[in-house]
Amino acid sequence: MSPAKRTGKSSGKVPSTTPPASPSSMSPTDLRVLAQALSDQVQALTAELQTAQDAQDQAASLHTTQLQTLRAQIHDQAMEIQGWEHRAASRSQDLRLLLADQAVEIRDLTGRLDRASRQRDVMRDDNDHLLREMALAGSEIHQLQSRIHDLERDLEASQTARAAADVSLDRLRDELRLTQEEVVTNDYVGSAHDGSALGSARGGSPPPNPPPSSPDVALAQLSEELQDTKESLERASAGRDYALEEFVRMTRLRDEIQAKLADSELQRDKATTEWADAERALTELESKLRRMST
Questions:
Q1: Cα(193)–Cα(190) distance, rounded to whole angstroms?
Q2: What is the pLDDT along the chain (294 residues), one digit of tens a residue?
Q3: Per the record, where are the segments of Pro residues compositional bias (predicted)?
Q4: Where are the domains of the chain?
Q5: How much of the chain is helix, strand and coil, in % rounded to 5?
Q6: What is the pTM of this model?
């Protein structure tokens, strides 16, 4: 450590007179006075030097203490900065990972939105197709109902005509039976009387068969009409049965279309709900990303 410079004057007393040029010419008393003055001056300078040295030591100690304190503060700040950097790096890494996860989630949500959109379009097309099929089925069902109604009316008329024909046929059969019995009886009685005499006169040859009576012709006509009525009735019954089968088939088809339509509406509502959920999740994710970026 370099010695401190003198900054003040000595507190000792110095002779105000100029010392003699040579101590040898001075008296002993003057020499003692001079020596005492020099001694006092040396002591004063020594005390002043000691005071300056103490002040310098105190300043050096204070400087050392301040330097140590400053170094400690610098070290603490460096550690704090290092901690901040570490936390910032960790936070940055977490944010990068979170952003990567959010990017994956965004891609997934975007894919879900695309799939939901395509599914919604497909279901809309299916719904329109089912509605068209429903309209066609309703028209065919209406036509079949009209046809069944006409066939039932024809069948009812045929059944009425058949019943009337059966009654007429039974009545004519009874009349024919009675007439045939009467004719047979009359022929038998007449043949018994006239046949023997006529046979004796002509050699006994029997008379020719009489022509068919009018009841036989009427019976044949009624039988033909009855057969025609039966055939018409069978055709009407077959047509009605076919129409009923078509009606049942179209009714079943209508029920299937209605079930498909209900399922399509359910799937459409489900897709709409998924679309809304995906849009809401995407909006929340975008808001979260904006908050993280700020």
A1: 5
A2: 444 444 444 444 444 445 544 666 777 788 888 888 888 898 999 899 899 888 888 888 888 898 898 888 888 888 888 888 888 788 778 878 877 887 888 788 788 778 877 877 887 787 777 778 777 777 777 777 777 777 777 767 767 776 776 777 677 677 767 776 776 676 666 565 555 444 444 444 454 444 444 556 766 776 777 777 777 777 777 777 777 787 788 778 778 877 877 887 787 777 778 777 777 877 777 777 677 666
A3: 205-214
A4: 27-191+212-293
A5: 90, 0, 10
A6: 0.36
